[in-house]
Amino acid sequence: MSINKELNLSKKIVYDITKFTTLDYKENLACIVWFVSCNMRCQYCYNCNIIEAKEGNYLLSDLFSFLEKRVGLLDAVVLSGGEATVHNLIPICKKIKAMGFKIKLDTNGVNFDLIKQLVKENYLDYIALDFKATKSKFKTITNSNCFEDFLKTLKYLLKINFEFEVRTTLHGDLLQEEDINEIIDILFNLGYKKDFYIQNFLNVETYANLNEAKNTFNKNKLSNKLNIIWRN
């Protein structure tokens, strides 16, 4: 079966396309595909329009028409959202790979089966995995009960030595120093030794209408078990 026959090119699941970025996939020139919908409702999420959208602004055929014009100009495609893994990414990634692009996946990691299949079929080159919260705060922050699913994906990626990074978004009223240290301990004890990225909360319109944190966050209280890189 041809790739196009596996795809429903008339599906409007792409909210937007960032045509060029040098920041989202290190050492690669890439574009970002923003898929609609998400299986979480994180309090700090600023992509409210994307996660609530029933359909996107672009067809899959629009995406591939765009990519065909970028062959030889871009190195990679970043799949983001929303949460890209709520969609069937297998035929999408298959076609992107056939065009010669690397693929980076931004994900909350809870769709273990799909992620494992994408990895086993060599459709992914890199993953940015969001460690949303500690187990005790996961439901409150994400409005989901998927911590164990996330953990399963994390352990799998470590087991197979896949190329990925872990990142956490920090809002001082949601996560305190002891929470970040618990996350660091989990990562370190499982064998994660790479950089740990902490993204500061963006004070824009969010799902839970959050404002700037009232709690002061003391970086000096953080564990030195992992190298922390601050973003934003």
From TrEMBL:
The keyword Plastid does not apply. It comes from the Bacteria. Residues 24-232 form the Radical SAM core domain. InterPro entries: Aldolase_TIM (IPR013785), NrdG2 (IPR012840), Radical_SAM_PqqE_MftC-like (IPR050377), rSAM (IPR007197), rSAM_sf (IPR058240). Keywords: Iron, Iron-sulfur, Metal-binding, S-adenosyl-L-methionine. Its cofactor is [4Fe-4S] cluster. This is Anaerobic ribonucleoside-triphosphate reductase activating protein. The keyword Metal-binding applies. GO terms for molecular function: catalytic activity; iron-sulfur cluster binding; metal ion binding. The lineage of its organism: Bacteria, Pseudomonadati, Campylobacterota, Epsilonproteobacteria, Campylobacterales.
